[in-house]
Design a protein that fits this description.
The protein is α/β, with parallel strands linked by helices and about 325 residues long. It has 2 domains: about 200 residues, NAD(P)-binding Rossmann-like Domain (Rossmann fold); about 90 residues, Alpha-Beta Complex (UDP-galactose 4-epimerase, domain 1). Helix content is about 40%, strand content about 20%. Helix 5 links the parallel strand 5 and strand 6. It is globular, with a radius of gyration of 19 Å.
Length: about 325
């Protein structure tokens, strides 16, 4: 049994990670500025701490912790990070959290820390073709992310590897690609495409219009939370010492994603493309490196994940009606 700290334990991935680690018998400490919104955490200890505050991080991180998963960040879907309206908060808040956490981890002699970066670090120039984006790990430089969120993630990647070099902490960096599932944001302005579209379909009559930002031909890949949890823990247990993608390679257009969700819901919808933030035109995970390093790549059963996610969001919508 390990003593594990999950920073960002009030968020979507953090909530699921805490519960999964507990099922394996570990002693889990959670910390976040908020508790999980939709269900009770299974953490042995949970601290409502603002990790931008170094004094609180100094209290939180103790020398007997075996591993830290650092997921805490100011983030959201394209409607939050893609408008430019939140750039200063995103960069300041997330950078402060990472500066505090990695500094204190090294000071306390923590052996292992995993930082969740993002596919948003990849250059905009490599993601203009919806059918052929290039997001292999070695293409992050020369750097040209399309959002300040991506720039902050790149900075923090370098921060963790600088501490790995100078302080011998075993720092892992994982570039997540559109993780989705139940218990995540779905109606608060920070929801990502699968949750937003599940909500729109759930609110739609048996036949009706669903608004899609942009042309809808922009493509993405989406990884269900169960596969994300497997990957995070495998990477933490490995000897990987470079950034690695964790996501699906199965691309789908946003229009087709909406139609797939409608099919799962048993509804007939009509896509209505409107103006709105769309991000890059194409993005998908490139999984050759993770397969090479771990002998594993995540399962890509999008329908399975959407069925579970839609059922949960449909329940949330019904509860509000």
């Amino acid at each position: 049994m390990k003593k594990i700290l999950v920073c960002g334990a009030g968020g979507f991935i953090g909530y699921h990670l805490v519960n999964d680690l507990k099922r394996q018998g570990h002693y889990v400490i959670g910390a976040d500025i908020k508790k999980p919104l939709y269900a009770k955490t299974d953490a042995d200890e949970f601290y409502l701490y603002d990790l931008r505050n170094p004094a609180l991080v100094e209290i939180l991180i103790t020398s007997d912790i075996d591993e830290i998963y650092q997921l805490a960040a100011d983030m959201g879907g394209t409607g939050y990070i893609g408008t430019g309206e939140h750039d200063s908060d995103i960069m300041h808040n997330s950078a402060m959290i990472n500066l505090n956490v990695v500094h204190e981890a090294c000071k306390k002699g923590i052996k292992k820390i995993l930082y969740t970066s993002s596919a948003c670090v990849y250059p905009e120039r490599n993601q203009t073709d919806p059918d052929n984006p290039l997001c292999s790990e070695d293409t992050a430089y020369p750097a040209e992310p399309d959002t300040e969120y991506g720039w902050e993630k790149l900075f923090s990647e370098r921060l963790y590897f600088a501490h790995r070099k100078n302080h011998s902490i075993d720092a892992k960096v994982v570039r997540l690609h559109n993780i989705f599932g139940p218990q995540g944001s779905w109606n608060d302005g920070k929801e990502k495409a699968p949750a937003a579209l599940c909500r729109k379909v759930a609110e739609c009559p048996e036949q009706g219009l669903v608004d899609i930002w942009g042309p809808g031909t922009q493509t993405r890949s989406f990884l269900y939370i169960e596969e994300c949890l497997k990957g995070l823990q495998m990477i933490m247990s490995s000897d990987i010492d470079q950034p690695v993608n964790l996501g699906s390679e199965r691309m789908i257009s946003i229009n087709d994603l909406a139609l797939l969700i409608a099919s799962i819901a048993g509804k007939q919808i009509f896509v209505h493309n409107i103006d709105g933030p769309i991000g890059v035109m194409g993005r998908t995970s490139h999984n050759a490196l993770i397969e090479q390093l771990l002998g594993w790549r995540p399962d890509e059963n999008l329908e399975y994940g959407l069925e579970h996610t839609y059922k949960w969001i449909k329940g949330q919508v019904n509860d509000l009606q």
